[in-house]
Design goal:
This protein is of the alpha/beta class. The protein is built from 11 helices and 27 strands. It starts with 5 loop residues before the first strand and ends with a strand.
Length: about 500
């Protein structure tokens, strides 16, 4: 295939593979290489599904000026440079004039319909003297960075910019979400996580929706898939959507530390900041915790709050995130003993949280009036404007510790006074040369019954009757005990009549 100095195709879309090419050639020579592999990729795919959508924000598009170190898209007098050692996938939407282009050793350029490159003879009058502009590195863009995702209820909301607020863990795609990479867009994302796989419901790349695990796995092994996705974990599709009307837990808590490492928390001015479950930063606002039954429907309740309150002018600036979370349970706010599923409603309005508290109170009043019909059994409220809430938490923890100590002291006193008796200890196995506890106890009881009448002693003829040795034939008190260098020797009259001596 032969190319002139002007390169522009009229097909729907083309993808030009760059693997194995030299990284510094004038543009006309690059595209005159007849043996360069050509791959066509048609962007005629569309997909639609009703679910919660998470859309990737960054791209590696040629027309995105933030992708260039000079902060602008190259023009006809510029020399374009891609790093030779970095992998890249670049989408080109329109035609562009350049002087030269240095390509990477491994990469791809995806051309939209009518897109291409051409060379202007001499300087481009609309470009000036020209500069060497470099394409920025995209290796550091992390899947688990919550600031790189947008959330919407429908695909139309994605297009219209109607995005939802949520806690940081749920900004990243959850296991039941549909993931979208924009159709006319290229990207490169690091999918490293604390798990081997990242499960999602479906994933859309360049307009094609992948819902089959095997089909998407095959795409990941392709050249395009390896350029777009890299990292220690593999994204998998085909995970079932949420079938529980009360909502489903996101499943990103295992990556909480990784998610929060990409978040920068700002300073707060409210009296008692709150930390929602699944969020990385303390916030000023309010948290409503809802306890529910099987008759509760999360989506219906979300729409109810939207139509009852969020459309009101006074709540126009409110950010509200609602989801099911596993809230840790603590005895006296200290000792953890498990977790329970709850509906968490996070309400933010800025720095003070006053407006959030007003909306939270409105929600509580609505729950009191209609909660039984909505499947809600109760609700708790926390606000960041409550004075002394943090001190109250600390005092409560201290009181809890003092209460435990007081209970222990009372039990010890009652045991000593005999009011409370300790349960008997189980019998321990008897040692070969020691009496068992039960035998020892039995001997004590017998002694008590006989009022101590039993005499467990015996007379020692050696010490109780000092003159006994002199009465034994052949034994004298002076000869029976004597000292040597090896010890003290004496005659035992009870066991050896032949004056067998013993050494002490």
């Amino acid at each position: 295939m032969n190319f002139s100095s002007t390169w522009s195709w009229s097909h729907v879309c083309h993808k030009v593979g760059l693997k194995g090419q030299k990284n510094f050639l004038p543009l006309p020579q690059i595209f005159k290489m007849s043996k360069m592999p050509q791959v066509l990729l048609i962007l005629c795919f569309a997909g639609a599904a009703n679910a919660l959508y998470k859309q990737w924000i960054p791209n590696t598009n040629y027309e995105n000026k933030t992708n260039w170190d000079k902060g602008d898209v190259p023009c006809g007098s510029d020399i374009v440079q891609f790093s030779s050692q970095r992998k890249v996938s670049v989408f080109v939407e329109t035609s562009h004039a350049v002087q030269e282009m240095m390509l990477p050793m491994d990469g791809e350029i995806i051309l939209n319909s009518g897109a291409g490159f051409y060379v202007v003879a001499g300087q481009d009058p609309d470009c000036g003297t020209g500069v060497k502009t470099k394409f920025k590195n995209s290796e550091a863009l992390q899947w688990l960075n919550p600031t790189l995702w947008q959330t919407a209820a429908t695909q139309n909301d994605l297009l219209d910019g109607n995005f939802l607020f949520s806690v940081h863990e749920e900004m990243v795609p959850c296991q039941q979400d549909d993931v979208v990479f924009k159709a006319l867009s290229s990207f490169r994302v690091d999918t490293s996580s604390n798990q081997n796989t990242i499960p999602v419901k479906s994933l859309s790349v360049l307009g094609k929706v992948f819902e089959s695990k095997s089909e998407f796995s095959e795409y990941l092994s392709s050249d395009s898939g390896q350029l777009q996705f890299h990292g220690s974990s593999a994204v998998t599709v085909g995970n079932p959507g949420c079938g529980d009307p009360t909502g489903c837990e996101c499943g990103n808590s295992v990556n909480h530390e990784r998610i929060c490492s990409a978040v920068t928390c700002g300073s707060l001015s409210c009296e008692t900041p709150l930390l929602p479950v699944g969020h990385c930063c303390e916030v000023c606002g309010a948290i409503v915790t809802i306890h529910y039954t099987d008759g509760f429907n999360l989506q219906n309740y979300r729409e109810r709050i939207r139509h009852l309150f969020l459309i009101l002018p006074q709540y126009k600036s409110i950010q509200l995130g609602m989801s099911k979370v596993l809230k840790p349970q603590r005895l006296m706010r200290i000792i953890p003993y498990g977790s329970s599923p709850e509906i968490q409603v996070v309400i933010l309005d800025g720095e003070t949280g006053k407006l959030s508290e007003a909306l939270a109170q409105d929600m509580i009043q609505d729950i009191k009036a209609h909660g039984s019909k909505l499947g809600i059994t109760g609700a708790d409220i926390q606000t960041s404007s409550e004075p002394g809430s943090s001190a109250g938490t600390v005092v409560g923890a201290v009181c809890g510790v003092l209460l435990v100590i007081a209970l222990v002291v009372i039990v010890v006193v009652l045991i000593r006074k005999g009011v409370v008796q300790m349960p008997p200890l189980p019998s321990m196995p008897a040692m070969p040369s020691l009496p068992t506890l039960s035998l020892f106890k039995r001997n004590i009881n017998v002694d008590d019954d006989l009022n101590g009448a039993i005499d467990r002693g015996f007379d020692n003829p050696m010490f109780d009757k000092p003159d006994m040795l002199s009465n034994i034939p052949g034994v004298s008190s002076t000869d029976s005990i004597f000292m040597t260098q090896t010890g003290v020797h004496f005659v035992n009259p009870a066991y050896d009549e032949n004056e067998t001596d013993f050494t002490v």
